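Take one record.
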Amino acid sequence: MTLVQMQPGSTDATAAGRTVADAMETAGPQVCNDMTVEVALSVMASARTGHLLVCDDSGLCIGLVTQSQLAAVRDGSAYSDRVQLRDILGDRGPFTSPVTTMVEAGHMMRHSEVDALPVVDEHGSALGVLALAR
């Protein structure tokens, strides 16, 4: 598994000491959980991104949605234009901390079967995203 912004030619010893803060992307677009799927897809298209960080009414990060997740919901038989992001997020997480090692984050991503993890501070505010390289 190759994570975003890994240095070319880095050794395993170097990678083992790196933290999520060394490799994460900036947070990018953050949206509220009451946004509809259609609007979220429009925001993604405008921002030219494949994911959005979703925040609650307090501004705390509660998850991440991807373009493929939203497209699957929109194409589902139970879809209506009133479906909000909070309706599809499910359980909160997974998340990672900027001080988590890249090795630990890689294990978490494999175990959770996700391609991107929100990076949050100790208060739950979004700092960035750790995503698989494409």
